[in-house]
Amino acid sequence: MKAYVFPGQGAQFIGMGKDLYDKSIEAKELFEKANLILGFRITDLMFAGTDEDLKQTRVTQPAIFLHSTILAALLGGSFRPDMVAGHSLGEFSALVANKTLTFSDGLVLVSKRAMAMQKACEKTSSTMAAILGLDDEIVEEVCNSVEEVVVPANYNSPGQIVISGSDEGIDKVIEILKTKGAKRAIKLSVGGAFHSPLMEPARLELEEAIQSTNFIKPICPVYQNVNAMASVDPDVIKANLISQLTSPVRWTQSVLNMIAGGATSFVEVGPGNVLSGLIKKINRDVVTGSAAFVM
Q1: Under DSSP, is residue 250 helix (H, G, I), strand (E, B) or coil?
Q2: What does the pLDDT read at residue 58?
Q3: Model pTM?
Q4: Is 87 a catalytic residue?
Q5: Which of 42, 95, 174, 264 is most exposed, with minimal Cβ within 10 Å?
Q6: Is 88 a catalytic residue?
Q7: 216 with 99: CB under 8 angstroms?
Q8: Which of the residues 24, 68, 87, 88 is marked catalytic?
């Protein structure tokens, strides 16, 4: 069985999607539709902007979403997923790819999500850090031991977890984890504490938008970040998506559950191959690859 997976923030690069725009009329139409929906020419920033342009959350998230969903659309009849999943933002791409959401609705939600997250980041000084070489339980224990807000945010692969929280809390936890034997404990260049309780203002804002958006029964199950479980029920999918911003991304658990559900190959749809690398660390026996549009 084939699983299609969709990357999240951090996979962006200058020039992303330009080959699709230049080669395909369908892609060009979708990109231009996106420019109109967003109210600015995101294609200019994607194709020829600066790194600083692309690092803005309001640009990064729609850009990655567009690259992923348009590439999936261009695969045409060869796109036959038995299951899908996305990492954080990538879950929205996955939900468009499996027909839970329309392209337009998905883009509007991603844009609102990005704006809401940006606002939440500006309210509290916060950050994230990657921790390598420790068991999840040790990281969880240390996060719970400090008074400040610090929580596991991304369970990326065995021995690779990202934590999220206040600046002061992250600094404290990093120092403790180094004494516990972490191979690396490094702050990430992100806008704030994604997937933590500090995103509650953004969650409330996004909840309103999600509740007023039409979700329909998908063509295949989506394995969702908050519980790593498969779902085809639009109401369940909606509830899990609302919880996503303040809950950890259970990527390791999602991949293991997809394999248990019959997945033997994973195709990454979007910029980069970060997820393929993580999947190989989770299970070396599965086949991984990246989707490509060929004229």
Answers
A1: coil
A2: 87
A3: 0.95
A4: no
A5: 264
A6: yes
A7: yes
A8: 88
